[in-house]
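Researcher: Let's run the pair from yesterday's discussion. Sequence first, then C-alpha cells, for each.
Model: Starting with the first of the pair.
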Amino acid sequence: MRSAALRVEGLSWAPRRGTTVLHPTTFDVAPGHVLGVVGANGAGKSTLLRILYRYLRPTTGQVLLDGVDIWAMSAQDVARSIAVVLQEQPADFALTVGEIVALGRTPHRSGLISAGDGDARIVRAALARLDLAAFANRMFGTLSGGERQRVMVARALAQEPRLLILDEPTNHLDIRHQLGVLNMLRTLGPTIVTSLHDLNLAATYTDTVLVLSEGHPLACGLPSEVLTEDLIAQTFGVRVQRQTLVPSGNAHLTFHL
C-alpha cells in the first residue's frame, strides 16, 4: 500500500459569521508515518481532520498530498487517496459486514464496472487484518460499537488510501482491540493522521504529536519532546508525572487533579 507525504501550510478555519475555530497551523508528516493529534475537548481536533479529508474548505492555507493541493484534485482522486474513519458510526446499515467493507473499493471502479477477483481479494485481506473474517455475513446492525468501529477501519483499508485519517479510532474498543488496532496501524503502509484522547497511547504509537488548545497549535514534534509535564498541564489543566517503564523503556504518564 502506497503512502503520501502530507504538508499542511498555514491552515485555519472559521465559519462565515463566527470566531476562528482553527488558527494557522503548519506541519509535515513523512510518508508512512503516524501523526497523533491531541488536545482537550473543543481544541479543534475534529475541525482539523475535516479539513484534511476535504469536508471543510480551509479559510486560509493548503493541504498538500505529495505536493498537490487536495482542492486541485478531482473528487474521485481524493476518494482514492484519502480514507477516513469517524468516531461515531450508524448502526442501521441494511448491509452485511462484507458488503460494507467492499464499499471501500467503490472509488477504484469506473462507470458500471462490477467488483472483480482483485477487489474480493483486497476485501478478504482487510477483513482478516481486523479479525473480522468470521463476521463477513453478519448484518452490521447486530454488531457491538467496538465491532462496528473495526468494520469501518477494514473498509478504509480496502480503499487502499495513501492517507488514512482516523477520529478517535480506539473509541468503543476494549483494551485488547485498542492495542491491536494501534499496533496494526503502524504496519499498514499509508500515512496516518489520528486524533487520540489517551496521551499514553499517543506517546507509544505515534511518530509525531500535534498539540492543539482552543484552536491554537502549541507544539508539534516527537512525543518524547512534546508531551512534557508542563505542556500537558497547560493544555489539559492536570498535573502529570512522566515515568519510564522497565524493561520496555516506554514513557508512561500518571495524572493527578
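Model: Moving on to the second of the pair.
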Amino acid sequence: MGGGPEAPTKPTSKGKELVLAVLPWPKAQCQAGIDFLEKEFDHLEVQHYYSHYENGKITVDDIPEGLPAKASYIATLFWLPSGPDNIPKTKLIQFFSAGTNHVAQHPIYTDSKIPLCSANGVHGPQIAEWVVMMDLVHSHSYTKLYDLQKERTWNQRAGLQVSDRVGKRVGILGYGSIGRQVARVAKAMGMDVIAYTASPRKTPESKKDEGYIVPGTGDPDGTLPSAWYSGTGKEDLHNFLKQEIDLLVVGVPLTKYTTHLLSTDEFELLHKSNPRGTYIANIARGQIIDQKALITALETNQIRGAALDVTDPEPLPKDDPLWSAPNVLITPHVSGGSDAYADRAFQVLATNIRRERSGEKLVNEVNRDRGY
C-alpha cells in the first residue's frame, strides 16, 4: 500500500469527508478536477497521491498508514488497498479506467459489496480518433509515403492506391461509448455502421446509452447502426461477421467468454464474406484476439491488416513475431490518452457521488458476476 509508521496520517479538515485519489497523473494535472469536486461538494476534501505506471510496473507515493480507513470515496486507476477491511467507510470506488478486469481477482472485487464504477465514456472521443486515424493511415498507404519522405524520394505512384471510406461498412463489436463515437465519426464519413452487443437491443429504450457521455459525442439514442446484432454464442457472432465488414472495431470487455473471441474460424469467415478484405482495430484487450491466429491471418492475407493498441502480453516482447507481421500497426496501449482525460473522469466521479447521496442508480457500476 505504501507508507508506514514513519508516514503520519494527514488529517482531514474538520467535518469533511475524504476522497482518496490515487491517480497516474501529478496533482497539478488533476487540480482542475479536484477543484471542481471540492467546489461542487463542500463536505468533501480530496487528498491526491501519485501512482506512477510505466511498462507494466506500478509505484505509488507513500500513502500514510490508516488514511484509506478514513476514505468515503476512492478514485483510482491501478491501486487498491490490500482488502475491504482496510476501507470500512468507503461508499464507492471510482476507477478512472474503462474496465476493471485488472482487479477482478482482488479481495475488494471478490469479497466485498463496495460499489465499483468504471470511467466508461471518457475514452470515446480520443479512441475513436485513433481508430479512424489508423484506418485512414492504412487505406491511404501513409506509412509507405512517410518512409519515402524519410528517404527523400518522390514516388507519386506509391500513393495512388487509395480506398476511401464512403460506402464502406464498419462493424462495431461491443457498442459501448467508444463504439458509439466511432459510429458517429464513421457516419459523418459516409460509412455504414452495424453493431453487435451481447444482449438484444430491440426497443428504442434498450438502445440508449445509459453511461457517461461526453457532451456532443457518441450515439446517445442508439439510432446510428443500420442493423443491430446480438448474442453470446459462436453462431450469433458469425452471423455478424458475415456482413461484409470493411473495418471491424473490437470494443468488448475481456471476460471468459470474450477471451480469444476472434480466432482462426472468425478470420476465415471475414475473408469469405468480404473480397475487399477486413481491417481490424483492437482497442479493447489483447487477449480478445488469438494472437497466433491473427499473425497467420495477416501472413496469408485473410484480413487486410490490423491496428492494435493492445497486445497479449503487454508490454509486447521484442522478439514477438507480431512486430514483423505484414500490414500491422502497433501502439503501446495509448489510444485512451487525452489532455481532457482526468477532467472527464472527475466528472464521472462527481456524477456518482451525487447519485450515491440521493440513492439513485450509479453510472457505470460494475456487475461483478458479468465482469463489467
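Researcher: Give me one sentence on the second I can quote.
Model: Residues 341-358 form the longest helix (18 residues).
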